Amino acid sequence: MTENLQSRCLANWNMEMKLDPAKDDLPLMANTRHMLVKHYVLDLDVDFKSQVIEGTVVLFFEPGSRCEKGGSAGEGPCLSQSYETCKIRASEPCHSPVTNVSACSSKTEYNDFAVCAKGEKDTSDKNGNHSNREQVSGISSSKNCYDIENHGNEDFLLVLDCCDLSVLKVEEVDVAAVPGIEKFTRSAKLTDAEELRNLRNQIVHELVTLPADHWREQLYYYTRCSQAPGCGELLFSTGPWSLMIGKAEVQAPRDFPHAIRIWYKTKPEGRSVTWTTDQSSRPCVYTMGSPINNRALFPCQEPPVAMSTWQTTVRTASCFVVLMSGENSAEPVQLQEGVLSWYYYVTMPMPASTFTIAIGCWTEVKQESHIADIRTTNEFSSLFSRADLRLIEGSCGHVTYPCRFQNPAASSQLVIPHRVFAPWCLKDRCAEILLELIPRCLSAAHGTLGTHPFSRLDVLIVPSNFSSLGMASPHIIFLSQSVLTGGSHLCGTRLCHEIAHAWFGLAIGARDWTEEWISEGFATYLEDVFWAVAQQLPHDEAREQQELKALLRWRRLRDEVQNSEEELQVLRPNKENTGEVSESGTCIIKHGLNAEKIFMQVHYLKGYFLLQSLAKRIGEATYFEFLRKFVQKFHGQLILSQDFLYMLLEDIPEQKGYGLSVENIIQTWLDTSGIPKPLLEECQTWDQCRLVQQVNDEVTKWIQVNQRARKRSKRKRRQDEVTFQKLLPDQLVLLLESLLEEKTLCLRTLQCLEKTYHLDEQDAEL
């Protein structure tokens, strides 16, 4: 039987190695339709000296949808030809045995910036991969592609997404040995091995299916079970993109251990986290939104359908602060002199890709005296007060968890508890800008969409190597230091964008990662709405600013479409196959590793223009009332584009009479490259906006100034002086973009521009 597992492992490894390295697709290898992770318990030590995170992760499983539907383990179809190959990193099969890998010892040694576990000798091969002495299984040697199936009497193989990790040991967890666990069993003491295996799986099933109001008890027993002894090592092996785990003579997922412990450590070059220094030159490590997500931080199931909860304990030197996706504001516990332990948990199931961690010498920026005005006077807030209280009377459509949407107190909470962290050198600037903005933006978001999906928020200014302006994760937002320069405009708009992701991107996620527009298009559209409410702008003024912003975004989209591959301009690249996976649950993310795509904004911009077009056609009041209904129905779930569009047209059926249909929206906006035809017609109206006309007048003045400067007129400067109007930040962006289109701007004009608008004091966008 072991030879059977070994041969399958080698077949899978060879299959991964044969994938076309010229492709830029990202493989998701986990066989989620066979087994589904419901909860992770991570127990980690952080060593800044070696730049390694080491520890264990315990995974609690339930049989996947294929098993629940009574599907056999027989051969299923392979992936369609649209799911072809992916770029891989070369590695080799693993053969080294691993023995006696122990838990993180209490004798761990620490220095000022390190927590180093002194365990057993590292027996990894040159790539850091391991397998136990009997070796393990792999994906069956199917003829062409990714599908992970069991054929005939072959042993079942669990496949997790894993990359850039050194896996040391995998074992089954004896959850039946936990004191008090009898409450989750229906049987007396058992001695038969098969009955004992069934008992352990029954305990896990009862634990993961506890009612939502038992969440504290559930977390308690997850902790106790994660600390239970092992009851047998499991066979395993690693491939370029996966960790494969098997148990001899277990042929069905329902019989496979439902609680397993994996001992592992990260690699300094791992792509899920980055080790660097902050702006105060202190060491730190954080997840920075890698294209490969978290598979180089811990073995996991990456497909979005693997919605799970988690709890994490992190031990590190006392000079560090650990921030993480967690519902609690963790208070550190001193384990020994110079060593602190931090604990976070999440009870709302979310994809493992949303897990975020940041460890550094962060300073908390606290409010001293100023209390922000968090009144919400915009028209959307009054609509919320009438509509949202009716909405919470309905039931939620997600799996059971302690949901804030069913809590009247949470639904009326305009501003959730929040904290701000930053390197010491940026503390004062954060106090000046962020502390005042956050409550205003949170209140504006609540006034627009209703209940905040998450109970609290941390905002962290991340190191200067962060490649974006911001990134949102459950309970935590990363912001670039760039948003702190200039006034509050860039910081406010970016903060609104990331806050919008709490609803679209996190509470409501895309079932297919290629549909990024569901997250980014909504966040881009909503940032304008939130920011207008946060500034308490009158309706007409807000509309003018949004028209100006639309013109700027149109110019960016036009330029991007002209200078990018057509295939990367499609919002739904898998088209009618969107959301499809193989019989086992494996799939690929088309262009998921494309370096150019990382910097493209087409999903932001085309998605934004689609939503703006729908709002204009339907009417803002009706549109936002619908959005709140949509959030109420789909929070805590994954969606496809058509879920949004079908509900929209069912909720507002009169639009069907005006030629609006799901099919033509998808064809016009989502499945086609280039500029959608309706947008080409609408873009001409933005030039007539009053704020745009002001900019055009100023551009004319500057062109005249430049022409005179180039002629080197001998007239006195006083005669040449021109009065320029004060411009809004977005107007100034449009002005500079327009002037850059001139063939030549002389040095004197550039100097005058800098002096007139104080360009060295403006925000990073300028």
From TrEMBL:
MF GO annotations: metalloaminopeptidase activity; zinc ion binding
Pfam families for this protein: Peptidase_M1
Top-rank taxon, per record: Eukaryota
Protein name: Aminopeptidase O (putative)
An annotated GO cellular component: nucleolus
Domain Peptidase M1 membrane alanine aminopeptidase: 451-669
InterPro entries assigned: Aminopeptidase_N-like_N_sf (IPR042097), AOPep (IPR033577), ARM-type_fold (IPR016024), M1_LTA-4_hydro/amino_C_sf (IPR038502), Peptidase_M1_dom (IPR014782), Peptidase_M4/M1_CTD_sf (IPR027268)
